[in-house]
Write a structure and sequence with these properties.
The complex is a heterotrimer of chains A (about 525), B (about 280) and C (about 350). Chain A has about 525 residues and is an alpha+beta fold. Chain A has helices spanning about 5-10, 55-60, 110-125, 130-135, 160-170, 175, 235-245, 255-265, 295-305, 310-315, 345-355, 375-390, 405-410, 430, 455-470, 470-490; strands spanning about 35-40, 70, 75-80, 80-85, 95-100, 135-145, 145-150, 195-205, 205-210, 225-230, 250, 270, 280-285, 320-325, 365-375, 395-400, 420-425, 490-500, 500-505, 510, 525. In chain A, strands 8-9-10-1-11-19-12 form a seven-stranded mixed sheet, with helices on one face. Chain A has a six-stranded mixed sheet with strand order 14-18-13-17-15-16. A four-stranded antiparallel sheet of chain A has the order 4-5-7-6, with helices on one face. In chain A, helix 12 (about 375-390) links the parallel strand 15 and strand 16 (about 395-400). Helices cover about 75% and strands about 0% of the residues of chain C. Chain C has helices spanning about 10-15, 20-50, 55-60, 65-75, 85-95, 110-145, 150-165, 165-180, 200-235, 240-245, 250-280, 285-290, 295-305, 305-340, and strands at about 100, 105-110. The chains are: A alpha+beta (about 525), B mainly alpha (about 280), C mainly alpha (about 350).
Chain lengths: ~525, ~280, ~350
C-alpha cells in the first residue's frame, strides 16, 4: 500500500489521481478577453478587504487591493507592490522597497504612507485579526516615499511575518480612507485599490462585478475583461451551476465532496488542490480540560483511540482526507515526520478508561459528554464521534448551534466538553495554530484560541522558542518539540487533514499557481477560447 | 355510541379517507414497533456507506453516507416525526382553543385584547418566528415542537372564537347561564363539544404541517441531531442528493406519504363530521 | 404551518352589510397602531434573547478577534449600553423612520432591504397570482364535479403537491430542467453582465423565475385549490344559491357569477395573512434557487445576529400584513355590497 507521504514524494499534491490536471498548462500563450464567472456562497460583509478577515471578503477584495508580496508554490515570496525587502539579523526590523509605477484606481500614486496606514491603522486597529497578527509591530518608519521600515517589539521569523503580509494585509489608499470613520466610509463598498480589477457593481444577494483595470502596472495584464462573483447559496445548486456551465470557477471547496467526485468525471471540469495548500488545516476536537474526567490525559487518549480516522476520511470526505498526526499537516514543510500515527484501538481505550477510574455503570455508560460540532462537514464528524464514543461507553449528546452561538459557547462561556473544530494553518502555524496550545493565549471571549484551559510550561517554551527563532533550523527544532508535546498531551485531539479544492471549467487558465491561489490578484489568469 | 357508529359508516364511504387512515396507522405501527424490529441504535454505523436500496437483505432500503441502516432510521424517524406532528398540533390546539374560547365566550375587552394578540402573532412570519425560537431554545426535539406549536395556534384560535361567538347566543347556552352554571362548565361541557369537529379537522392539518415544518427547519440546520426524524434524514442526505438520491429521497417520500395520509384523514373527518354536505 | 381549511367564520362575517369604506379604514388603522407597537416591543426583546450577539457572529465569520477588539466593536454598535437604553434609542430611531446601520452588510439597513425587496415581491406576486388563478379554476371544477373522479383527482393532486418538502421539489426541478435539459438557468435573478434591457431583460428574468415560481406556486396552488373547493361547497346549500337556481340560471352562471365571489373572500383573507410570511418566508426556495430576495437576507440576518436588519424586516412584514388585511377587508366589503345589490 502506498502511504500518503510516498504519494507526496512522487510529486502529486493531492490524494486522488484526477486532482492536479491543471499542471501542464503553463506553456500556453495567454489570450486576452473574456469574463471569469466565480461561484461564491454568500454576500461578503464588505468588499473593503483591508479591514476584513473572512475568506470571502479576502477572495473578492484581493483582486482590487494588492499586497506587498505573494507566496509561491515553493514557499518563497515574490514581490507584488514591493520590489525588494530585507530584514535585520535579529528579526526586529523589516524593510520594504516599493515599485515606482503603481497607481490607485483614481490615478493617485502609491506611496509608503499608504503601506504604513494600511498596517498600522487599518490592520492593527480595524481588522478583527490584525491586532493579533500585527501585535509586535510597533512602528513604521518612512525614510522616503518608496521605503517603509517596520519596527517589531520582539523578533519574528521571516516566514510567518512575510506570510502574514502576503495573505492578510491588503494595501488601501490613505487619501481615501484616512480621513473618515473607517467602518462607515461610503467608499468601503465601492472600493479603490491598486489591483488589476476595478470595482463595478454589487447587486446584493446576486453578484459582484469587477472590471479590468486598463492602467494596471503590468501593461499586458490583466488578461480578463471582467471577473464576476456570482452568489449561489446552496452547495447543490453550485454543483449544478458547474454542470450547466454557468460558472467557471469556485474556490475553497465550493461543492460537497460527493458532488466533487461526480463533477470530476465531467470532461470539461478540472479540479485543483494545490492552490489552497497554505490555508488548509486539520480537523480536531478541542477538549475542555476544566471537566474532571477530561483533565486526565488517559481519558483524552482513550477518546483519541476510539476514533477510526480512516473511516472519517472515507465516509465524510470521500477519500479526500488523511488521518492527522497533530495540529500541523503532514504535507507542510514544518511537519515532524517522526510523529507516530494516532492509534485506533477500542480495547486499549476501554482499558485506559477503567484504569483512570471510570468503570461502566449499570446502564453501560461511564459518563456523559456533550459534543459541539461547528457546522457543515463537522456535523457529520460529530455524528460519527458520538457513535465512536458509544463504543467505549461514553454517552455523547450532540449540540448543534449556529456559528454565533457556537462561538459564544466555546470561547466565551467555556460551556462545552468536546468541540469539533477546524484548525486552519493560515500560511504558518505561528499565525493561527499556536494560540490553541499556548497558556498565555487563554483569553475569555477571544475566538480561535486556547479554550481548553491547557497549561504546560514545556509547551509554552516550545511555542515561544518557535515564535522568535530567526534561523530556520532552530525554528524547525522548536516546532518539532511543539508537535511532540501536542501529540503526547492531546489537549486537542487531531482528527483528519482534509483537502480543500478549487473547481474550474477547463477553459480557465490559472496563471501562476501559488498555495493561496484564491487570494492572488488573478492578473495573469485567462480564459482559453 | 350510535352516533360514533354512524360517523364510522360515513367515514368508511370515502375511499381516500380510508387510505389515509391506513397510512397513518401504518406510520404509527412503524413508530411503535421500531425498538422491537431494530433493537440497536438506528444511528449506529451498521455497514458499508452508500448501499443502494433493494440490493441486500441486510439493509433493504440501503445505507447512508456513514453506513447507517436507512430502514431502521425510517422506523425510528416515524417516532420522532409523528411525535412532532402530534404533540405540536395538540399544543397548538390547546393554546388556540383556550384563547379562542375565552375571546369568543367573554367577548368585549378581553376578547378584543386576545384577538389583537392573535393578530400580532400572525403578522410575524411563521418560519422566521420558528427559527428564532429554536435558536433561542437551542436545537432539540422539545424546542422544535414548542416552536411549531407557537407558530401554528393562531388559526385554531380564530376558528374557535368564531364558533363560540355563534353558539354563545344560542338558547341552550343562555339556558345554562340562567340556571347559574359556572362559565367554565358552560365552556367545557356545553359549547366545546359542539366546536370539536372543526377543531379536530384543523388539528390534524396542523399535524401534517408540523411534519413539513420540521423538515424545513432541518433543511436550515435547526433539527435535533440526537434524534432521527424524517425531516432530519432528508435535510442531512441532501448533500448527497445527486449521488445517492435514496438517502434523502426515501425519508422525503415517507414525509410525503405521511402528510398525504394525515390530510386524507382530515378531509375524511371533515366530510364525516359535516353530514349535510354528503347528502347533496 | 398553513391553514387550508375553510374559514367558515370569515364567510359568514362578510355576509353582513358592509360598513362604509372610510369607516373601515379608520377602524382598522386605529386597531393597527397598538398591534404594530406591541410587535415592535416583542420583536426587540425576542431578537435579543437569541444567544450570541452581532460581535460573536462577526468574529465567527471573520475568523479571529481578541477581547479588546470585540469590546470596541460592541461599544461602536452601542451594545455595551443597558438594554433599556438600547431599546429607547431603537424606538426613537424607528419613530423617525431611521432603521439604522447594518454592520453585517456595512451599509444602511434601508438600502440593504430595498436592494433585496424587488426580487421577493416579484417572485411572491407572480407565484401567488398564478396559483390563485389555477386554484380558482381547479377548486371550482372540483366543487362542480363534487365526489366524481374529477374532484378526487384534483384533491389527490393538490394533496400531493401540498405534502412535498419544498427543497426536494426545488432540487429535483433543477436537476431535470437545468442540468439535464438545460432549458432554464440553475438559479439567480438575471444573467449577470448580459447587458440586456427592456423586453429582453424581462424575458431573461422570467426565464430565471420559472423554477422558483413553480416551486413556490405549486404549494400555494394546492392550498388555494382546497380552500376554493371547501368554501364553494359551503355555499352550495345557501339561500342565495337556491334562489339563483330557482330563477333558472345556468349552473356555470351560478358557480362563477354568484358563488365564486363569495368563495373568494376566505381565500383573499388568507392571501392577506400570508403576504407577510411570504416576504421573508420563502427562505428555503430562495436558498435553493439563489434568488436574491428578502428571505435569504432574513435568514442571514438571524444567523449573523444583525439586529437592525432583522427588526426592520420583521416590522416591515407586520406593516405589510396589516395593510394587506385592510385591503382585503375593503375588497370584501365591496364584494359584499355588490352581492347585496344583486
Amino acid at each position: 500500500m502506498i502511504t500518503r507521504r510516498t504519494v507526496l514524494a512522487i510529486g502529486g499534491l493531492s490524494m486522488l489521481p484526477w486532482v492536479g490536471k491543471l499542471a501542464a498548462q503553463e506553456t500556453k500563450k495567454p489570450a486576452p478577453g473574456g469574463v471569469l464567472r466565480v461561484a461564491v456562497y454568500d454576500d461578503p460583509r464588505s468588499i473593503f478587504s483591508p479591514i476584513e478577515t473572512g475568506d470571502l471578503e479576502l477572495t473578492i477584495g484581493s483582486k482590487i487591493f494588492e499586497s506587498l508580496l505573494r507566496l509561491k508554490a515553493d514557499n518563497t515570496f515574490e514581490g507584488v507592490l514591493a520590489e525588494s525587502w530585507k530584514y535585520s539579523p535579529d528579526g526586529k526590523e523589516y524593510e520594504f522597497k516599493l515599485r515606482d509605477n503603481t497607481r490607485f484606481h483614481d490615478g493617485q500614486p502609491l506611496t509608503s504612507e499608504d503601506i504604513a496606514f494600511s498596517i498600522m491603522e487599518l490592520g492593527k486597529k480595524h481588522n478583527a485579526f490584525g491586532s493579533t497578527l500585527f501585535a509586535n509591530v510597533i512602528a513604521a518608519d518612512l525614510p522616503d516615499a518608496r521605503t517603509v521600515v517596520f519596527k517589531l517589539s520582539k523578533p519574528m521569523p521571516p516566514f510567518p511575518f512575510l506570510g502574514t503580509l502576503a495573505a492578510f494585509a491588503p494595501i488601501a489608499p490613505k487619501h481615501i480612507y484616512g480621513t473618515s470613520d473607517i467602518l462607515k466610509n461610503p467608499k468601503n463598498n465601492t472600493p479603490i485599490g491598486t489591483g488589476p480589477f476595478r470595482f463595478k457593481e454589487w447587486n446584493r444577494g446576486s453578484s459582484i462585478v469587477l472590471d479590468r483595470n486598463p492602467d494596471y502596472r503590468e501593461k499586458s495584464e490583466p488578461y480578463l475583461d471582467q471577473v464576476v462573483f456570482r452568489i449561489i447559496t446552496d452547495p447543490g445548486a453550485r454543483a449544478a451551476a458547474f454542470e450547466a456551465d454557468e460558472v467557471d470557477a469556485g474556490v475553497n471547496s465550493p461543492v460537497s465532496k460527493a458532488d466533487l467526485k461526480r463533477l470530476a468525471e465531467l470532461p470539461f471540469i478540472a479540479i485543483d488542490a494545490s492552490g489552497n495548500k497554505a490555508t488548509e488545516g486539520v480537523n480536531a476536537i478541542e477538549v475542555n480540560l476544566r471537566r474532571k474526567e477530561l483533565s486526565d490525559v488517559r481519558v483524552r487518549r482513550a477518546i483519541s483511540m476510539s476514533i477510526d480516522r480512516n473511516f472519517i476520511c472515507k465516509a465524510v470526505y470521500e477519500g479526500m482526507a488523511a488521518p492527522a498526526h497533530g495540529p500541523i499537516r503532514s504535507d507542510s514543510f514544518l511537519f515532524d515526520a517522526e510523529l507516530p500515527q494516532l492509534a485506533f484501538n477500542i480495547e486499549e481505550a476501554n482499558k485506559l478508561l477503567d484504569e483512570a477510574g471510570y468503570p461502566k455503570g449499570a446502564d453501560g455508560w461511564r459518563f456523559n459528554l456533550n459534543i459541539d460540532p461547528n457546522g457543515d462537514d463537522l456535523n457529520v464528524i460529530g455524528d460519527y464521534i458520538k457513535q465512536a464514543l458509544a463504543g467505549i461507553g461514553i454517552n455523547g449528546t450532540i449540540i448543534v448551534s449556529d456559528y454565533a452561538t457556537h462561538n459564544a459557547r466555546i470561547y466565551t462561556d467555556y460551556d462545552f466538553d468536546l468541540s469539533v473544530q477546524v484548525i486552519s494553518t493560515l500560511v504558518d502555524p505561528q499565525i493561527s495554530v499556536f494560540d490553541y496550545y499556548w497558556s498565555k493565549a487563554i483569553s475569555k471571549g477571544r475566538w480561535q484560541t486556547n479554550a481548553t484551559d491547557y497549561r504546560n510550561e514545556e509547551m509554552d517554551k516550545a511555542i515561544e522558542d518557535a515564535e522568535s527563532a530567526i534561523e530556520a533550523d532552530q525554528r524547525l527544532a522548536a516546532l518539532k518539540q511543539f508537535q511532540k508535546i501536542a501529540a503526547r498531551d492531546l489537549p486537542l485531539i487531531p482528527l483528519v487533514e482534509y483537502e480543500s479544492h478549487n473547481v474550474f471549467n477547463k477553459r480557465v487558465q490559472l496563471g501562476s499557481l501559488g498555495p493561496v491561489w484564491p487570494l492572488q490578484t488573478w492578473a495573469d489568469a485567462w480564459l482559453e477560447k | 355510541m350510535a352516533s360514533l357508529r354512524e360517523f364510522w359508516r360515513r367515514y368508511r364511504q370515502n375511499p381516500g379517507a380510508v387510505l389515509g387512515l391506513i397510512i397513518v396507522l401504518g406510520a404509527m405501527a412503524m413508530a411503535l414497533l421500531a425498538p422491537w424490529v431494530f433493537p440497536d441504535d438506528p444511528r449506529r454505523i451498521a455497514g458499508a456507506p452508500y448501499i443502494a436500496p433493494f440490493v441486500t437483505w441486510q439493509f433493504p432500503l440501503g445505507t447512508d453516507q456513514l453506513g447507517r441502516d436507512l430502514l431502521a432510521q425510517l422506523f425510528y424517524g416515524a417516532r420522532v416525526s409523528l411525535l412532532v406532528g402530534i404533540v405540536a398540533a395538540l399544543g397548538a390546539a390547546l393554546i388556540g382553543c383556550t384563547i379562542g374560547a375565552l375571546a369568543g365566550f367573554y367577548g368585549g375587552r378581553l376578547g378584543a385584547l386576545l384577538m389583537r394578540g392573535t393578530e400580532m402573532f400572525q403578522t410575524i412570519p411563521d418560519i422566521m418566528l420558528a427559527l428564532v425560537l429554536v435558536t433561542i431554545l437551542q436545537a432539540s426535539l422539545t424546542s422544535v415542537i414548542i416552536s411549531i406549536a407557537i407558530v401554528s395556534w393562531t388559526t385554531v384560535a380564530r376558528v374557535t372564537r368564531a364558533e363560540f361567538l355563534k353558539l354563545r347566543s344560542q338558547d341552550f347556552v343562555l339556558a345554562c347561564i340562567v340556571m347559574g352554571m359556572p362559565s367554565w362548565r358552560i365552556i367545557v361541557s356545553q359549547i366545546f363539544p359542539n366546536v370539536l369537529p372543526p377543531i379536530m379537522v384543523m388539528t390534524s392539518i396542523i399535524a401534517a404541517g408540523a411534519i413539513l415544518a420540521e423538515s424545513s427547519l432541518s433543511f436550515l440546520g435547526l433539527g435535533d441531531p440526537n434524534s432521527v426524524s424524517w425531516g432530519m434524514m432528508t435535510g442531512v442526505g441532501r448533500s448527497v442528493f445527486r449521488n445517492a438520491w435514496y438517502v434523502s429521497g426515501i425519508p422525503g417520500l415517507a414525509i410525503l406519504i405521511a402528510v398525504l395520509g394525515i390530510n386524507l384523514v382530515s378531509d375524511g373527518l371533515n366530510d364525516a363530521l359535516n353530514p349535510k354536505r354528503r347528502e347533496r | 404551518m398553513t391553514d387550508v381549511t375553510s374559514t367558515s367564520g370569515a364567510v359568514r362575517k362578510h355576509r353582513k352589510t358592509a360598513p362604509r369604506a372610510l369607516q373601515v379604514i379608520a377602524n382598522r388603522l386605529a386597531q393597527a397602531i397598538p398591534t404594530i407597537a406591541c410587535v415592535l416591543v416583542v420583536n426587540f426583546f425576542l431578537v435579543r434573547l437569541i444567544p450570541g450577539d452581532p460581535v460573536d457572529a462577526f468574529v465567527a465569520k471573520a475568523q479571529a478577534a481578541d477581547a479588546l477588539f470585540k469590546e470596541n466593536l460592541r461599544h461602536e454598535m452601542g451594545l455595551d449600553q443597558p438594554i433599556w437604553v438600547q431599546f429607547g434609542i431603537y424606538l426613537w430611531k424607528i419613530v423617525h423612520l431611521d432603521f439604522g446601520w447594518s454592520f453585517q452588510n456595512s451599509a444602511p439597513v434601508l438600502e440593504v432591504i430595498l436592494s433585496r425587496l424587488w426580487p421577493t415581491v416579484l417572485l411572491v406576486v407572480v407565484s401567488i397570482a398564478l396559483s390563485l388563478v389555477g386554484g380558482v379554476v381547479l377548486g371550482v371544477t372540483a366543487a362542480r364535479y363534487f365526489l366524481t373522479w374529477k374532484d378526487r383527482a384534483i384533491a389527490i393532486m393538490s394533496m400531493i403537491l401540498y405534502a412535498m418538502p419544498a427543497f426536494w421539489i426545488g432540487l429535483s426541478l433543477i436537476v431535470v430542467f437545468s442540468v439535464k435539459l438545460r432549458l432554464v438557468p440553475v438559479g439567480g435573478f438575471d444573467t449577470i453582465g448580459s447587458g440586456k434591457t427592456g423586453l429582453a431583460y424581462a424575458l431573461d428574468v422570467a426565464r430565471h423565475m420559472v423554477l422558483p415560481a413553480a416551486t413556490l406556486g405549486l404549494f400555494y396552488l394546492a392550498v388555494y385549490t382546497r380552500l376554493v373547493r371547501a368554501s364553494m361547497l359551503e355555499l352550495l346549500d345557501s339561500d342565495f344559491v337556491r334562489t339563483a337556481r330557482a330563477k333558472g340560471l345556468s349552473e356555470s352562471t351560478v358557480l362563477w357569477r354568484h358563488m365564486l365571489p363569495h368563495a373568494l373572500l376566505p381565500v383573499l383573507t388568507m392571501v392577506g395573512v400570508q403576504l407577510g410570511s411570504l416576504l421573508s418566508g420563502a427562505i428555503v426556495i430562495e436558498t435553493v434557487f439563489s434568488w436574491p430576495g428578502l428571505g435569504r437576507l432574513t435568514f442571514q440576518a438571524a444567523l449573523q445576529r444583525d439586529y437592525n436588519t432583522l427588526l426592520a424586516i420583521l416590522l416591515m412584514s407586520t406593516v405589510v400584513v396589516v395593510t394587506a388585511n385592510l385591503i382585503v377587508d375593503l375588497v370584501s366589503a365591496w364584494i359584499d355590497r355588490r352581492m347585496d345589490v344583486n
